[in-house]
Amino acid sequence: MKIGDAAAALGVETHVLRHWESVGLLAPPRSPSGHRIYDEHILDYARLIQTLQRAGLSLEQMRRLGLSAHPGRLELIAEHRAAVRARIALLRATDQFLEHLAACTHPIVAECPRCSEFAANADTRPPGDFKGI
């Protein structure tokens, strides 16, 4: 299929597929007239790119994954998983803080000891360490 049909099948614009090609993530074969040819194999690669994007990997990280030997891929995946776990912990702590904030009865939030403690330690506390909330 041609690039327009492939883009429609994937739910992206054609320029996205061209960009993925320009950064080395896709390499669709060309017809004798020079048009890109997208078959199911190339569409599967594009779907993998979309899945990795949803997982939070950058195009550069994906490119490195494709170029790395197995130990390098494992290292990159471990690093990304650690970042995901840290983000999850931060989101949990934020959710706990927001839950407290919704129930906080202090007329001025800055005067609430629990809110102040959270704000004062937000940059130094490990994500998810919102004591007592």
TrEMBL record:
Protein name in UniProt: DNA-binding transcriptional MerR regulator
Domain of life: Bacteria
Cited PANTHER family: HTH-TYPE TRANSCRIPTIONAL REGULATOR ADHR, REDOX-CYCLING DRUG-SENSING TRANSCRIPTIONAL ACTIVATOR SOXR
GO molecular function list: DNA binding; DNA-binding transcription factor activity
Taxonomic source organism: Nocardia alba
CDD domains (alphabetical): HTH_MerR-like
Record SUPFAM superfamilies: Putative DNA-binding domain (SSF46955)
Keyword Magnesium among UniProt keywords: no
Domain HTH merR-type: 1-68
Keyword Hydrolase: no
Record's keyword terms, sorted: DNA-binding
Organism lineage: Bacteria, Bacillati, Actinomycetota, Actinomycetes, Mycobacteriales
Pfam families: MerR_1 (PF13411)
